[in-house]
Amino acid sequence: MIVKVLELEKDKARLVIQGEGHTFMNALVEEILTDPDVDVAKYTIEFQFSDPELLVTTKNAKKNPLTVIKKACKRISSNCDDLLKNLSKQK
């Protein structure tokens, strides 16, 4: 996964995440929005085969938006690991 930083401020990050689509981006935005210090989390895909652009802003610059994004990705990964463990137990 290649990530390009388009804009980075204390309370705002705009990134392009190459090769991802609606499935991952929906999960990522939903997970980012669970953080109470996040003001806005949304993505856009301008054209059918273009890479998504993610926008995340935090309230009053309390948290670095890149840190928020990284933590959300780790939570998604952890949830997937838990699901795989539970599915393995069902065999």
From TrEMBL:
**InterPro entries recorded for this chain?**
RBP11-like (IPR036603), RBP11-like_dimer (IPR009025), Rpo11-like (IPR022905)
Show where the DNA-directed RNA polymerase RBP11-like dimerisation domain sits.
13-85
Query: One Pfam family, short name please?
Result: RNA_pol_L_2
Q: Which GO terms describe its biological process?
A: DNA-templated transcription
Taxonomically, the superkingdom here is: Archaea
Q: Which GO terms describe its molecular function?
A: DNA-directed RNA polymerase activity; protein dimerization activity
**Which keywords describe this protein according to UniProt?**
Cytoplasm, DNA-directed RNA polymerase, Nucleotidyltransferase, Transcription, Transferase
Q: Do you know which NCBIfam families this protein is assigned to?
A: PRK01146.2-3 (NF002239)
SUBUNIT field: Part of the RNA polymerase complex.
| Name this polypeptide is given | DNA-directed RNA polymerase subunit Rpo11
Its ancestry begins with: Archaea, Methanobacteriati, Methanobacteriota, Stenosarchaea group, Methanomicrobia
